[in-house]
Amino acid sequence: MNEQGSHQDNRPLSGLKVIETARVITGPMVGLLLAEMGADVIKVEQPPRGDAFRNWHGDGAGPVSANFVAMNRGKRSVDLDTKTEEGRKLYRSLVRSADVVIENYRPGVMDKAGIGWEQLKEFNSSLIYCHITGMGTSGPRAGLPTYDAVAQALSGLWSQLTDCSRPEPVGPPFADQLTALYATVAILAALQARTSTGKGAKVEVDMLSSCLAFQTLAVTSCLIDGTVFDHRTRGRASLSFGFVDSVGRPFAIHLSSPQKPWEALCRALNLPDLIGDPRFRTKADRSTHYDELHDVLQAVFAAQNRDEWMALLAAAEVPSAPILSVGEALVDPQVIALDIIGDDGPRSPVVINGHRCMTVRTAPEFGEHTEEVLDSLKKLASDDALPD
Amino acid sequence: MNEQGSHQDNRPLSGLKVIETARVITGPMVGLLLAEMGADVIKVEQPPRGDAFRNWHGDGAGPVSANFVAMNRGKRSVDLDTKTEEGRKLYRSLVRSADVVIENYRPGVMDKAGIGWEQLKEFNSSLIYCHITGMGTSGPRAGLPTYDAVAQALSGLWSQLTDCSRPEPVGPPFADQLTALYATVAILAALQARTSTGKGAKVEVDMLSSCLAFQTLAVTSCLIDGTVFDHRTRGRASLSFGFVDSVGRPFAIHLSSPQKPWEALCRALNLPDLIGDPRFRTKADRSTHYDELHDVLQAVFAAQNRDEWMALLAAAEVPSAPILSVGEALVDPQVIALDIIGDDGPRSPVVINGHRCMTVRTAPEFGEHTEEVLDSLKKLASDDALPD
């Protein structure tokens, strides 16, 4: 435990015990979120190499990848082969004293191994069991492998991100990671229900539903107005724009709906006539003539450098910011001021009573905590009480 | 209450009382998530027109927008002017019996109005008070208005989405909505802590931290390896691809790291020689020569239509899907099979003990529930117990 350990007592999930039997992103990111908030997350990994994400880019050898650190800091790792009877027995013992299990195997895999929800709840009636799937457990695609791009494509999310005449995969793995966020919400809601019922629950979250839920604006607009959002919708709906300066450095302006930032922008740029221009008079006009407005402004912005525009726009209270690379973002003065970047990743956005949640352990080596975890089990339970 | 009311008793947050004093997206989406899971969410709206999102695209008149429905179904609405002493008194009474308050005003606004955390906790010591901000409460940008595009730009998230030589705003409002998800996680974690402490808490979540936290892969890679992700990284890291068929219909293939789907793809396309091609032999090779691989495959895929490719790829177990528009997604057979689209929006991705969480009310008219909510307050409290 490092010096950040002083935060631990303040963290809201301190005392919560979580078993994560999950690989790659969807499940491990849930474990990460719970670990940041203070849960004791024990990552159960299968021999010989554990979570495939440890060495995603290589041949299975070599150092732990940044990908693995990104999703697994703050946890303990136990090397446990649940394909053996002894491993399953130990796994059940672990689960017996746990609050939460997270797994992202395909439907039926854990049940067949004898360590699914139906089996585990028999000796831990207050267990919250979270099963993350690609596309749920019914329907024509339930049995097929679902990777991030598949769920993004089928849910419509991809169509909101790139020009579909030349579709490109972009961004963080949205389908995987949104699913992790919804699954974390689901687990915590089930824990809340447990405070009144005393009972555990089986929680299921899938990637397709998560992508659709996140598209609530687009889905509801389609259902109610019949409009179909695509990658061009966001700018027009919100009047947000991307521009480049005289040397190609990008920046953003977000005018939103009110007249005030629009008029402030026109005055700041010394273009007061634009305010009354019939193409741009109302929010609806500016939305309809979005491309023209973009081009008019881009022509102006090409004349000077970004720092000068940022100062001018800030003074005029026009919502704006440089579009930073991830590297630049890490050293931005606001990011520094908030102290939100740790040694091995971003810190949690959750601040409780003035204390920012954060992990207090580095990402574990495979099986690093096998001995200490199994030793603590022995202390917890007498041998004859171990379930078979 | 409609026929979906039968689900209510199963929902995990049934019995939880939430006061939402929030506008537009970040705060209201938190209320939506809690309402879907069974919480009684009372949306406190200011006269004369309530949440600006009711009429975002117009002049303030006319019907409630799809945007508003997308973020506010499942709630009750109370018309309450907290700029008056009477309104503040009623607000405090509402909060006195609540579990959670959600607000997204700028730092200090609610405190100045006498209804901030410091004031409210005095008469509800178990209250969870969630304050959502753009950029936190310290640092050079803390006082500036932060809209979605501003947080996306400054956090680096935008740079992972589009080519920054011609930056475009795309997708759902990621900064707003990711913040809502993290804030929901924060609130539920604080509720979990309350079960042991009995105490409420102030929870703060900001848009900049949320965007950075969601970029854990990019941030950690930058910190550990010094690599800077951009909009081209995702395809290369995950070997996911977008293609178009003979008539321009888009589809996705996600090969990921293992050899198996890659070799299956080559055989399905009757291109077995590609497997041994030195440009594409290993995952790392295919990542390095991503553009070439894309072009080789695109030339093949241009010869035939998407339905035929989808059937062929499914038979070969190559993870793939059509890239659907949002409209097409709503009627996809898998989406229909999971029954995840309601009348007024997508349903919750959270399924607990086999029951999918969903809202049981339509989006409220402004002030629709003022009378019933205030009447229930009168029943709850005798007048002299009302705080001032």
Q: Regarding CATH, which class of the largest domain in chain A?
A: Alpha Beta
Category by helix and strand content of chain A: alpha/beta
What's the arrangement of strands in the largest beta sheet of chain A?
Answer: 3-2-1-4-5-6
Compute the separation of the termini of chain A in Å: 34 Å
Q: Fill in the CATH topology of the largest domain in chain A.
A: Rossmann fold
What gyration radius of chain A follows from the Cα positions, in whole Å?
Answer: 25 Å
Name the CATH superfamily classification of the largest domain in chain A.
Crotonobetainyl-coa:carnitine coa-transferase, domain 1
Q: What sort of overall outline of chain A do the alpha carbons produce when their principal axes are compared?
A: elongated
Domain count of chain A, please report it. Answer: 2
Assess the beta-strand content of chain A as a share of residues: 5-15%
- Strand/helix succession of chain A: EHEHEHEHHEHHEHHHEEHHHHHEHHEEH
Could you say what the CATH architecture of the largest domain in chain A is? 3-Layer(aba) Sandwich
Helix % of chain A is 40-55%
Q: Which two protein chains have the largest interface (Cβ within 8 Å of the partner's Cβ), and how many residues from each?
A: A-B, 156 and 156 residues
User: In total, how many beta strands of chain A?
Assistant: 11
